[in-house]
């Protein structure tokens, strides 16, 4: 991406060339044993806040090295003064790498075959894209090789930073590399940092494995990444928002301040499509010939193109895997000893996606009656579930079955679980005694086990086909986790977990057709669907000042969604983290932010924004913690910290929590204090320092009922960050739930009838039915809301009365009205403003609101006027008509394909048209749309319309027949001729989307020889279509060519109709007949009356005689 050299690097806006943090100086003493690791750090940035523990004070037990991690050439001894780092690296990398599973196979890890290519590429280009399938060994071998090359190149300070998307993968990779170097565990040459745990040495660690969140924190505090020579982004194919943002910021640092000494290596476990720099990647398959750049193509372009980025591919390695689809799984269950609990089929994937309980029962049945029996060599079973709640549900269900509990162990695995429990899963104890084998294990895992992990002993995988992915809730603006289908690439990776140590088997709970038709090839990037408020806050701290700058200048692989960024900007401004500044235009004048585009509006970070940007939680939660700290009340601060930790950590729910339980946040807070206090205390230190730690310590000590007091403060503590999510109960809903109106104007449900009148919806979820539901809430008191309510004069309209404008004084929290009182009638200017707003918000826009309140006759007259002008534009091409007619015509849906700009222009035209008329009315019912439109026409234009596009035509019988101007569809346009002669003179026909139609009785046009035409004769004309009806008004025929009609059509109509209507004339020669609407008898009387000159008297006398007969 090209950048101006004169522009100051964005990452130095807040850092300064001379100030800021200076990164740690990294070095390795060649013949000195590494010091004792440091654990339990408060900071995730690498800045140590605790002294290294003296050797005699060692209390932390080192993680034992599993036997499965030993190399085939024999385990390398622990680091001793006799073996320096370079020699140990040579011994590891020179062994040509036994597989990570320790299977004893003589073949090497595939990644060893491309290490020379990696070295050669990085020697000439700063960046590298490494595509290596699962099992290649890239996660552990490549960083070691990069470190060896750095040492051989004379670098004694440059360190390798490896970024993995999951905490489990971070610890596992660090443990694996440390074991390969003979160091027993992380803390020496290899260290790691995750959110709640850091183990590394400031002086000796040369490879540090971190999560993307830790790297973002490091970049915020030390944008130059002093002391780091290469950053490796592992598992980039997962496309998490953190990984994408890390790459964008790293590229900015590399391009602006470290172009020569910072390398970036991106590693992916799945193929990313054709890596063609020109963007000719994979075809989108739409059949229109357009080509969409592949992920690999965009990634290479982001890394500087092929001139700055090398591309290396490596094969993976896995044993054969047997796939069983849903129908085959059901058959295997039916053949099991227990008969599969009578299950003859697997529920459809859609049902499993919607019903969590059904998913848990189905997976438990498959594990018990199929997976344990199908696992090759009676190996362990790895079950993939979408989230933590489902994992815990399967563990509970299987543990409760006596037939299962007696034969196997069931364990959960997810990212937020304690480290010792993760190690119990990843490093199981070996069997003891001859012939004694450990029990078969079932590991129920979230998608954390998809990549970068090899779980010993697994030979069977159960794949639910589901995953949890973050999405931004459009109703609440909050990020939420939803269950969704995995991609085909993820499904392949999950199956591959069964073939890492030997032949395996994968049981898929979906059909082969589902896999081919419902699953996407690759997972979409998370940045396109998640809540971007945390990222925008980070980028603001980084130096970004407009949405357009982020979209156009920052080197994202896939730019964030513009609407999501603007929504995040509005939210951050509302909570006070950002504020808008006047932008300076090119002429040096200040332009108001209201007049500038929202994407170009400048924003800056406030003091509150700088404070909450340092907290490792969502800006909503950070705002609540910051506000609680300002109150000076320990209970409120403790409540805000505990609530924030609960809401930011999915694993904080009680193990016994079920779908029908009360989702009051107070229950989770009490459970958190009892079960996860160490993690809570670390979180408190990161957000509020020592004062926060003291506050949560008071929760555990619970002197004088402090815990109960803090729980009662939850609503007050969280309110500053969730003001827009205050909810007011509005009545009962289906399934024993309650309806709530949120302050932001949306509705939400809570699964209890006897629910509080006011709540804070701290967690919401929108289901497949489109209904938002509260997953967690905090009750609120009305007094608390009264304290934050605001008073304002509110103008509103009453739709049932034609949007009549009224005013009231409202005391409210957002859209929730606590009280109101009526006010006198508002001024004409305010009435006009309110009516304009009501018209703009109308379903049909301003055009629809101009017609909806008219009487049917008036509405038809307006539509007729618009159609007449439309017909003239089509016939003559005139463009001197007022633009309001074209805007109304386009809003009617007959103007063909219109783009957004045309609709916007039409909206402005109509707004300018009606605005002067709104000051004299109080509702839209009082608007006379026909008068408004006629006022835009000059007298000459009105006469022109009346002359050439009349609303009536004279029939041969002397009556006036109304003319309607009917719109036709674009598929069946009306046709006419340029001369009005019906096309017989050889002139070309003209097609229009509007045709004039007159309806009359057939007898009214006896004697008419010439076709009737509409339009100016000197330019173009169209025939008037006559809709001829019977004496009873039933349609007989439509024609625009009367001579042809009398000659070809009329004879057949006459032969059929004269028997039905014998009282009416049906002459053989209609061209010689007299046009009339009367019956034969009436015509006969008129003739006789005309003969004796007493037509009127005789007619009256006849009527009197008939009346006397009736009497």
UniProtKB/TrEMBL annotation:
TM spans (from-to): none
Alphabetized Gene3D superfamilies for the sequence: 1.20.120.1080, P-loop containing nucleotide triphosphate hydrolases (3.40.50.300)
InterPro entries linked to this entry: DEAD/DEAH_box_helicase_dom (IPR011545), Helicase-assoc_dom (IPR007502), Helicase_ATP-bd (IPR014001), Helicase_C-like (IPR001650), P-loop_NTPase (IPR027417), RNA_helicase_ATP-dep_HrpB_C (IPR013689)
Keyword Hydrolase included in the entry's annotation: yes
Composition bias type Basic residues, residue spans: 48-61, 1102-1111
Keyword set includes Nucleotide-binding: yes
Region of interest called Disordered, as start-end residue ranges on this chain: 43-73, 968-992, 1058-1111
Record's protein name: RNA helicase
The organism of origin for this protein: Pseudo-nitzschia multistriata
């Amino acid at each position: 991406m090209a950048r101006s050299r004169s522009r100051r690097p964005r990452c130095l806006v807040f850092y300064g060339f001379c100030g800021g943090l200076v990164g740690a100086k990294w070095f390795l003493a060649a013949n000195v044993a590494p010091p004792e690791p440091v654990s339990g750090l408060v900071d995730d940035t690498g800045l140590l806040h605790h002294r290294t523990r003296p050797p005699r004070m060692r209390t932390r037990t080192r993680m034992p090295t599993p036997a499965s991690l030993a190399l085939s050439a024999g385990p390398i001894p622990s680091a001793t003064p006799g073996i320096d780092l370079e020699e140990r690296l040579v011994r590891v990398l020179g062994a040509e790498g036994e597989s990570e599973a320790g299977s004893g196979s003589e073949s090497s890890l595939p990644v060893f075959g491309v290490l020379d290519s990696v070295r050669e590429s990085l020697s000439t280009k700063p960046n590298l894209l490494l595509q290596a399938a699962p099992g290649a060994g890239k996660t552990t071998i490549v960083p070691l090789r990069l470190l060896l090359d750095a040492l051989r190149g004379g670098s004694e300070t440059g360190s390798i930073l490896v970024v993995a998307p999951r905490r489990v993968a971070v610890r596992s990779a660090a443990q694996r590399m440390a074991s390969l170097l003979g160091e027993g565990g992380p803390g020496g040459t290899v260290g790691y940092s995750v959110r709640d745990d850091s183990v590394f040495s400031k002086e000796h660690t040369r490879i540090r494995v971190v999560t993307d969140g830790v790297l973002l924190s490091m970049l915020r505090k030390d944008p130059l990444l002093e002391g780091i020579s290469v950053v490796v982004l592992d598992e980039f194919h997962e496309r998490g928002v953190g990984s994408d943002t890390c790459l964008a910021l790293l590229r900015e640092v590399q391009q602006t301040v470290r172009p020569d000494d910072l390398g970036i290596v991106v590693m992916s476990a799945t193929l990313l499509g054709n890596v063609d720099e020109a963007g000719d990647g994979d075809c989108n398959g739409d059949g229109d010939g357009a080509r969409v750049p592949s992920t690999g193509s965009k990634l290479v372009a982001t890394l500087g193109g092929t001139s700055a980025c090398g591309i290396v591919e490596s094969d993976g390695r896995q044993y054969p895997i047997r796939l069983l689809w849903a129908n085959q799984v059901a058959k295997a269950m039916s053949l099991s000893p227990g008969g599969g609990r009578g299950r003859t089929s697997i529920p459809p994937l859609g049902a499993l996606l919607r019903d969590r309980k059904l998913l848990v029962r189905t997976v438990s049945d498959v594990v018990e009656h199929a997976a344990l029996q199908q696992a090759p060599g009676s190996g362990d079973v790895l079950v993939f579930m979408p989230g933590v709640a489902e994992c815990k549900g399967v563990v509970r269900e299987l543990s409760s079955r006596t037939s299962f509990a007696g034969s196997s162990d069931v364990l959960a695995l997810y990212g937020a679980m304690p480290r010792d429990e993760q190690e119990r899963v990843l490093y199981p104890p070996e069997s003891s005694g001859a012939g004694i084998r450990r029990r078969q294990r079932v590991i129920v895992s979230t998608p954390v086990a998809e990549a970068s992990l090899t779980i010993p002993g697994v030979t069977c995988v159960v794949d639910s086909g589901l995953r949890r992915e973050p999405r931004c809730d459009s109703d609440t603006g909050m990020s939420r986790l939803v269950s969704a289908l995995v991609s085909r690439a993820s499904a392949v990776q999950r199956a591959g977990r069964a073939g890492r140590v030997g032949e395996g088997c994968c049981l898929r709970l979906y059909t082969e057709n589902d896999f081919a038709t419902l699953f996407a090839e690759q997972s979409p990037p998370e940045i396109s669907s998640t809540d971007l408020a945390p990222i925008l806050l980070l980028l603001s701290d980084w130096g970004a000042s407009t949405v357009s700058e982020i979209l156009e200048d920052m080197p994202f692989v896939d730019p964030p969604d513009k609407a999501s960024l603007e929504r995040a900007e509005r939210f951050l401004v509302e909570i006070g983290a950002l504020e808008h500044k006047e932008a300076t235009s090119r002429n040096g004048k200040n332009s108001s932010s209201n007049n500038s585009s929202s994407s170009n509006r400048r924003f800056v970070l406030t003091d509150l924004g700088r404070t909450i940007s340092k907290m490792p939680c969502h800006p909503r939660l950070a705002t609540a913690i910051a506000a609680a700290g300002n109150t000076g009340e320990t209970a409120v601060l403790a409540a805000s910290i505990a609530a924030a930790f609960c809401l930011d950590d999915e694993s904080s729910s009680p193990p016994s929590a079920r779908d029908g339980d009360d989702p009051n946040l107070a229950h989770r807070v009490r459970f958190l204090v009892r079960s996860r206090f160490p993690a809570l205390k670390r979180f408190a230190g990161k957000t509020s320092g020592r004062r926060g730690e003291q506050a949560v310590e008071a929760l555990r000590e619970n002197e004088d009922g402090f815990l109960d007091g803090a729980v009662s403060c939850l609503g007050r503590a969280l309110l500053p960050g969730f003001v827009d999510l205050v909810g007011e109960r509005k009545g009962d809903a289906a399934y024993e739930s309650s309806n709530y109106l949120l302050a932001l104007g949306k509705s939400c449900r809570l699964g209890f009838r006897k629910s509080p009148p006011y709540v804070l919806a701290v967690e919401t979820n929108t289901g497949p039915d489109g209904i938002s539901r509260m997953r967690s809430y905090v009750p609120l008191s009305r007094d608390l809301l009264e304290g934050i309510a605001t008073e304002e004069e509110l103008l509103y309209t009453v739709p049932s009365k034609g949007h009549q404008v009224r005013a009231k004084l409202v005391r409210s929290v957002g859209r929730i009205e606590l009280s109101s009182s009526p006010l006198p009638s508002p001024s004409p200017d305010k009435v006009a403003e309110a009516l304009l707003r009501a018209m703009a918000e109308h379903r049909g826009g301003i055009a629809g609101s101009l017609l909806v309140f008219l009487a049917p006759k008036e509405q038809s007259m307006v539509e007729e006027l618009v159609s007449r002008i439309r017909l003239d534009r089509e016939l003559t091409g005139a463009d001197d008509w007022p633009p309001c007619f074209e805007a109304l015509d386009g809003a009617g849906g007959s103007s063909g394909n219109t783009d957004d700009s045309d609709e916007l222009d039409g909206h402005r035209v109509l707004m300018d048209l009606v605005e002067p008329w709104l000051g004299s009315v109080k509702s839209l019912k009082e608007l006379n749309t026909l008068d408004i439109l006629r006022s835009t026409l000059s007298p000459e234009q009105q006469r022109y319309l009346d002359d050439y596009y009349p609303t009536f035509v004279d029939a041969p019988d002397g009556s006036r027949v109304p003319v309607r101007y009917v719109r036709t569809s674009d598929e069946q346009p009306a046709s006419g001729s340029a001369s009005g002669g019906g096309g017989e003179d050889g002139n070309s026909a003209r097609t229009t989307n509007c045709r004039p139609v007159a309806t009359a009785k057939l007898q009214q046009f006896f004697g008419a020889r010439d076709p009737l035409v509409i339009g100016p004769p000197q330019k173009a004309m169209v025939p008037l279509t006559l809709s001829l009806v019977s004496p009873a008004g039933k349609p007989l025929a439509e024609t625009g060519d009367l001579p042809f009609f009398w000659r070809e059509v009329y004879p057949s109509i006459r032969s059929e109709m004269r028997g039905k209507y014998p009282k009416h004339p049906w002459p053989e020669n209609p061209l010689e007949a007299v046009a009339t609407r009367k019956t034969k008898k009436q015509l006969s009387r008129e003739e006789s009356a005309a003969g004796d000159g007493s037509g009127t008297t005789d007619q009256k006398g006849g009527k009197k005689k008939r009346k006397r007969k009736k009497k």
